[in-house]
Amino acid sequence: MRFQITRSSEGAVCRKAPCVQAIRGPESAAFPGQYQWFVELSDLAELLALLRETGGGLGLFSPEEGEPHPVIEIFDDTDDE
User: What is the DSSP string of the chain?
Assistant: First the structure.
């Protein structure tokens, strides 16, 4: 299954890949030079591997009206404690 993947610190489109497995999608019309990113996962084991590799914080969101893919968001630890 194909998922759009984002980082909470970057937003829905960005210049660099949000994770190692990410495949670059189309360029954003609103933000030239920034792209959507996608991952292909075939089963729960691959989702769990992605969770381990990205640091353990993921959100999974079903597609809203007009969106073709569900979204995985990597939650970055941005709090300075």
Answer: -EEEEEETTTBSSBSS-SSTT-EEEEEPSSSTT-EEEEEE--SHHHHHHHHHHHTS-EEEEPPPTT--S-EEEE-------
